[in-house]
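Please discuss these two lines.
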Amino acid sequence: MTTELKQLGPEEHPSGTAALRITGPTAQRFDAPELIEIAIIDAGQTERHLDPRNPDDPWTTAMFWFFPLEPQRREGGLWLELDHGVTHHLGANKPYRLRLRSLDGVEADEVFVMKANLRRPSQKPRGWVMPPDPRGPLKAPPPSHADIPLSPVPAPVPALVPEPAPPPPEPLPFSNEVEPEPLWDPAPEPLPPPPAEALPPEPEPQPEPYVEPAPVVPARRRPTKLQIALIYLVLFLIGAGGAWLLLPKPPVEPVWTMDSCRTTLRANPDPAKTLADAGKLAQSGQLLDCQFLLFKYAAEKGQAGAARMLGTFYDPDTWAKDKSPLPAPNPTEAARWHKQAAEAGDAESMYRYGMLLKLGRTEEADGPEKAQMWLKKAADAGHAQAKAALAN
């Protein structure tokens, strides 16, 4: 078996987390681990697919794809991390089919088994959200109050009782004996002051003579022309600076990198704003990989314009090496995304989807008949190329 579910100890894999290690020819077919999506299938009489977003009924007949955590090459193969929201729904010693696909259309199937000794929390995960793109491993949720052991109550510390004061000494019995005199005088009498004749007389203070201060006459000087010009210049600069501070400032456009792209998607942003950000990157022709992730997020949230752009990345008629992050076109994926945008009313995707059907680049039945329908819809919406295709 070239795929196994592993744990490397509590420090790297806390309770409930594990990693899929894939070796052999399958691991060599995928060039970019960070662009891999996976699906977990219970292959019984009816194939059921794991959808961790619904913890009460996680197995469904509809195919569900999601990104693994921290995809990387490690130990001579692919290493895909799984969190508690996924592993909780896997039965012990039961084989599952793992389906992998890359953005360039490469797909592969593997089989793995959930080991019985896999450490995982007993509580059912809630609120699992599919990661928009690879990210760090998630920790298992904190245990419930019933799982937390009660800490022992410390014994009360007895209060300190002060020791009783010793009793006062008993008075001496009456005696006719005379107490002995002390050897020194504990309080000697102060020495008498010296006679007044011995002290010299203190001199009487003499008043200082009064001197009237001279009047201070301020000198009046007219400002020079240079000084007046400087004053007007300073006042002008102060006024101009205040006016500039009151003017509305244009919004600062973010500087996109792949790290900031992934950070933005982890926060589940507004799909319409995500589509607008991806459009700005597309106009400047920057960060094709980031464009792809932003368009894919917005398309999965129902944005027709994003689905059209994904179809453009895959479509053989619009694919270009310098305008698409994919190494080669993929007509099947192009039809998938153009169909989604066409059903939402996008005229360009109606035309592109109709041409894919007309040229037999899809596996759909009645392709030519469906092509005429979609081309007519695009022509009715005012699409010039669709009108020309119907005329020919």
User: Anything to note?
Assistant: Residues 3-132 form a domain with the Immunoglobulin-like fold (CATH 2.60.40). Residues 225-246 form the longest helix (22 residues).
